[in-house]
Design goal:
This protein is an alpha+beta fold. About 50% of the residues lie in helices and about 15% in strands. It starts with 6 loop residues before the first strand and ends with a strand.
Length: about 500
Amino acid sequence: MPSDNLDSAVLDVRGMWCTSCANALERVLRRHAGVLDAKVNFASESALVQWDPAATSLRDLLAGTARLGYECVPDGESHDREAHFAKIKGDLSLRLIIALFFSMWVMVAQWSLYVAPSGSMSASAQYWLAVFSGLTAAPVMGYCAAPFFRAAWRTVLAHAPGMDFLVTLGASASCLLSVWELIEGRSTVYFDSAVMIVTFLLIGRLLEAVVRSRSSDAVRSLLDLPPETAEVVGADGSESIVLAKRVSLGSVIRIRPGERVPLDGIIAQGASSLDRSILTGETALKTLGPGDTVEAGALNGDGELLVRVDAIWGQRRVDRIAQNVRQMLARKTAAQALAERATHYLVPAICVIAAATLVWGAAEGMGFAAALESAVAVLVITCPCALGMAVPLALTAGVGRAARAGILFRDIEAIEKAGHVTMFFLDKTGTLTEGRPQLVDVAPAAGVSRDELIEDVKYGRKTPDEAEAEAACDPASCGGTQGAADAGATKEIDASTLIWQFFQAHRR
């Protein structure tokens, strides 16, 4: 089928609890009639879907995911990821606090049963301690563990049970076995195992949410540089401050010195030097004038510009970069696909091993309770949460770290393959730089000493290149003998005695 007849979209996904949720959602999307390919990434909370518009529509796909309990919206309609992660971390923190508080009392009761010398405690006291342990475990299992149970149910409905299913199975089996022991009048209970499973996994999920939010913030901090407001100049010369997303195509906006450009456009009036390193990676300022194009995120220099908008909010170059990053994160590397396939087969294998342990224990005369306890132990210790989360979290953290350094990857596979690179070649006009000029020599005019010249630069900082002035004021550039001028310090300089005769900046 020709690719021109296909539609694709990147979706923001809400409601996923772990990688098993992502696998379940991916399986549901792929089973949908008309869908040709679907990839869901838990770490970036995104889905990349490709479908035949003649067989289905995006509305039908979103309705299908909603029935499973996941909210999907097209990328770009929901930008407040900071608030989203804050809500996730707040919910996990509350559940963890409650789990820690009640788990403490469960452990006190259980350890009293474990360490009490034989005969030092009556059977009645032991039984009521076991009951107390069960009552204090109820809030943990009823509230704190609810997301695990909900996620497990969704994955079962999608015929793709995963790690949450094992967690639910192990914790539920421990509790049910303990309740059965209490009904039989015995005090041998295992509520401590159930609550500690939930508590430790909540700690892991909270740490994971922190990593994902930091990685997301690192990418967004690079892409959110354009200001959210713009100063619009009307046809009658009036000026007003409006939200950049409400500025219409063809409007004229004023960019003052030191401000960042909020929207892409063409300079209608004025000239200035702009720092476009956010888009090009080139640190040298570029002087632009009427008719030249400016992009959102560029930092204006010392000139004032009137810019006619030719790309509104959501269609700017920086928005296209953001969309490319989201598409990249929605894809899966070979290692990630391998890890997810492993967890897909590992879950039923663990269930089979647990069932075999139960049967073998009963056949060996261990007793049903002891055999069931062994089977529960198998479920608890073999939960492969780390296997499914390690690869996507590592990739997301890598993307965030690269974004903080000003590097945007266009292919997720490139990150994985970068670890095997032993040699690389750079094709760049000029020299590879650190983006920071360094003063290597000055030749002052007659009658002016080197130290006097640098001292005057610290106060005036008026050179052909502002970055070079900063380099001249850098203590390291001055041999460590000169420092930057004190904040608020002023000095009168006789410009007639200062001539910039030779100023070489070496870009390392």
